[in-house]
Amino acid sequence: MKPEKAKTASSNLIAASYGASVFDDLSAIWQKCMARHLRKVMARETVVLNWKEPVDTIAEAEAFLAPGGVGEQSEQERAGKFEALLEKMLSSGQNLHHPRYIGHQVPASNPVAGLFDAVGSLTNQPMAIYEMGPWATAVEHAVTRSLCRKVGWNPDTSCGVLTHGGSLANLTALLTARNVVFPGSWEVGLPQNVVLVVHADSHYCMNRSAGILGLGTRHVVKAALDDRRRMDPSRLNELLLEQKAAGRKVMAVCASACATPIGAFDPLQQVAKVCRDHDVWLHVDAAHGGAALMSRTHRHLLDGIDMADSVVWDAHKMLFVPALCAAVLYRNHAHRFQTFQQDAPYLFDPSNPGMAEFDNGTRTIECTKRSTGFGLWGIWALYGEQLFEQMVDRTFALAEYFCNCLVEADDFEVLHTPECNIVVFQYLPKSLRDGSTADVGRLQQELRSRLVKSGEFYIVQTNLNGRAALRVTLMNPLTTEQDLTALLDELRSIGQDILSKQP
Length: 503
Ligand SMILES: Cc1ncc(COP(=O)(O)O)c(C=O)c1O
Known about the structure:
- With 503 residues, the protein is of the alpha/beta class.
- It folds into three domains: 18-95, no CATH class; 126-384, Type I PLP-dependent aspartate aminotransferase-like (Major domain) (Aspartate Aminotransferase, domain 2); 387-500, Aspartate Aminotransferase, domain 1 (Alpha-Beta Complex).
- It has 17 helices and eleven strands.
- The strands form two sheets. It has a seven-stranded mixed β-sheet with strand order 1-7-6-5-4-2-3, sandwiched between helices. Strands 8-9-11-10 form a four-stranded antiparallel β-sheet, with helices on one face.
- The longest helix has 23 residues, at 20-42.
- The radius of gyration is 25 Å and the shape is globular.
């Protein structure tokens, strides 16, 4: 580092943060830190979760933001501090890339997708209109067209947008359904007696959407499930007949592919047929399971999805790209402008209406929107769609392996037959087989808490039919069968310790 650079560093902070050579120096440090971190995490040389109480982590983070600034610093000192800040970030988080992170439905994102995604962060290509981010917009159109094709639709007669997450995507799709099913509701609100029919295990964002859309959460009707927690088509038919007889109008039926609790896939062909018989909008929340469409082995789980009116598919779940990248897809291209009716002449040029087709801000809640598609487009282009197939097949196979281990073990109980990469189970040694639901539940909670705080593994807890249980989602293709047997050993060891200390 040249001495004259060191002199100017603290006096001109704009030069010290925007200078091309500053970027050269700091990005080299960044590359070194990130590569070292990922290598360590993937090799299991770190804990999974760096657990500390939230008040302590907030205080630590705030201490870096000293009022009054950071004082005089040479460029060399600043580079050292940059590295220390990165190390702080990297050593204080959740290590999703650790093969023993087997928790929430958030993946060990593909590192190469992260590199493509970082291009958007660095060059800042937000896109409300085409001109603001021409390549980001092109990428968004390209990936949504390709996802439509995977659903089984002609990309010229279907359409889609990317948005910031599955919750916002579901809200967007249901807003479109509301406006199409009840014309004029954008201006005058909803008519009386409208209901939304949802899978009884649907994600909470459905209920939230009903609140936001002015429908009211009390007007959400749960469709009954079969013994595998899938929407039951014949009972859906009865439900729709009942709603009609009671004078209620159905805004949409929301099916799941798959539903969050145990990953159950609705029988979409039959559900779609019922919806068509009743002339009702079918929305499929395929936020998690949409990726099975990439797999020749598993795509049958979504048979019938092409009959849906709208579909949500999160790429930041099972397409393994960094959060957030969620697609809202419509079977009918004509629905693309029915989500919103905004008037913003400074953005959407009325003298050039043709461009509206490419100004994505007309179709999403966001105005300024991150270039969310770069990661997905990048790895799709670089490796081909077979990469997604391999990641889906690998993680689904790991779940099957784990389920078999649970079935074979006499001190665990698996609470369902997994259809994808979500498995719900209990630690249930013989001594507790006749224990009360509450006692068994308390054991699962304590087990999970001790396991997670140890940093050895990360799993989550849930409640299924009133039974507290443990839940894993296999979202890292680098997790091995040995990691899963080690998880059972660790749970056993902690469980036995807890039980041995009970009076
Ligand atoms: C089926 C389903 N839909 C929607 C969501 C919400 O997605 P997001 O967390 O991206 O808002 C989830 C999240 O797990 C989900 O499992």
